[in-house]
Amino acid sequence: MMKTIHSYWAYIVLAILIFTVINAILGLIQKKEFTHKDFRLGLFTLITSHIQLLIGLGWYFMSPWYKSMKANGIDASNRLLAVEHPTVMILAIVLITIGWSKHKKEVKSESKFKKFAIFYGLGLVLILSRIPWSNWF
Length: 137
What we know:
Oligomer: single chain
Number of domains: 1
Helix content: over 70%
Largest sheet: none
């Protein structure tokens, strides 16, 4: 059940994160004013990504393969799911959180969009790099 929730919630997080990054880049290029809509979009992205992290950590430590891995060790076949995926996802969420914190300190709209584009964009790149695509399709 938790694995299914983690998998489906990932689609939501990915869609919202892509939308937020594109919105930030467009806002930066078109020199738009940073509005409450942009603020809420960034906050919603932050919240959904943190929920995904909590679901993922819950699944990680309660999964049967974690118990097996703990007993038998990590080999090359489960390194992506055991080490790389969780580590990179945590780093991605940290970058998103830093972007959220830094944008609040900015006054100019351009700077706010820039923080979102950089930090949320880096988070998106990290997430896309370590999604276990073979398990998704």
